[in-house]
Amino acid sequence: MKILIIGGGGREHALAWKIRQSPTVEELFCSPGNAGIAEIADCPPLASSDPDAVADFVARQGIDLTIVGPELPLVQGLADRIIARGRAVFGPTAGAARLEGSKAFAKEFMTRHGIPTARYEIFDDHAAAGKYLARAEYPLVIKADGLAAGKGVFIVQDEQEARDAIHRLMVQKVFSGAGRTVVIEELLRGREASFFAITDGKRVIPLVTSQDYKRVFDGDRGPNTGGMGTYSPALHLDAATVKFVLERIVAPTIHGIAEEGHEYRGVLYVGLMLTEEGPKVLEYNVRFGDPETQVILPRMASDLVPILRAAALGDLSGVRVEWRRERAVCVILASQGYPGNYQKGKKITGLEKFVGRNDLIFFHAGTRSGPGGDLRTAGGRVLGVTALGKTIAEARQKAYETVAGIHFPGMHYRRDIAADAIEPARGDNG
Ligand code: AMP
Ligand code: GLY
């Protein structure tokens, strides 16, 4: 089988690493890829911002399965273009990808289908939003409707902060068109959790749970990032919570989107707040999480390719997914300044010390090959160090011992990934 992965971060390296292990794969492409991916796949420089160019490549090369990593190409209709050329794609069509591409659409969708979420109002008029802010109760959450690379969410404590946020979104247009419409919603309190399920548009296969750390500094301080680390399983998502999420959130989402005439074949990622009233949806994503994928896939015992292919072909019946008992912890190494402006081109050293260890995996994110074949930084998040162990504590210790042996100028990382993971003495199967 010929497979193409779209993207070039740690998530895509994890996908490529897992897919490479499948005996079904003859050729693996990943575009744009990165230095780590280039060791196991061909990385043609396709313009991923041009869905037709990618779809033409798929048709020309006879790619049997395309897996789309990031949300933007999905929202832009890449899956639709590939389907139009008669080829299989793992990733929803543009109509279904609106669950992530438009927060206003997602909120109204949840209302239509009785899916628990924060109470909200939607505004596309600045004056109307202003009137609402005068009579609202605080704190509140203000969100840009469209894609804003995770930066379009403002938690505001009072009316003045709310006015500033609305001004930035609707008048200064800091996220251009993404802030034309805003969602203003109730602040939910509780612990956050992410949940992933693979779907063929009808059936759902849940993945093992994982916990993400979004803030840049220890103790959840500092600005939000794409994710600074993760572990699996997230044991605070107990069996009863998982059952509720599957029955009351994931199933009605998949059935609802099908009922509204959209094809959802891919992975659904639900961002949850576990409130006193039960789990509520904070957001939908229509793709795998990064770095969550870097702990989920190393725990998967099954071959990933038949699973993704069955979902893409619309028939997951008969597919079973087996998981390893081992736990996984991933620590992200980031460039100085991330998530703000950061420098690139720094030399990365130390990886060679760990060659041959099968309990450690280095997932490249922002890396490229430098002159003379050395490894250089090329992004904000540079490397994900994933370690496997019998317990989360053991995996965590191995991950941090490894991190201590890796270096690049300005490298920073959180020291408290999985430190709060509570594991019963005889863990369940997670
Ligand atoms: P989103 O992109 O909608 O997931 O928002 C990004 C982050 O903002 C979430 O991971 C939460 O930490 C926070 N957030 C979003 N909506 C709410 C809400 N209604 N209540 C509390 N926190 C929220
Ligand atoms: N780790 C958060 C995300 O993938 O959006």
Identify the strand order in the major beta sheet: 11-14-17-22-19
Number of H- or I-type helical stretches: 12
> Structural class from helices and strands?
alpha+beta
The appropriate CATH architecture of the domain at 2-93 is 3-Layer(aba) Sandwich
Total number of β-strand segments? 22
Write out the distinct hetero groups bound to the structure. Answer: adenosine monophosphate, glycine
Catalogue the unreliable spans: none
**First-residue to last-residue Cα separation:** 32 Å
Radius of gyration: 21 Å
Helical fraction: 25-40%
> How would a crystallographer describe the biggest sheet?
5 strands, antiparallel
CATH third-tier fold name of the domain at 2-93: Rossmann fold
Q: Give the CATH class of the domain at 2-93.
A: Alpha Beta
**What do the pLDDT scores average to?**
94
Query: So what's the overall shape?
Result: globular
Content of β-strand: 25-35%
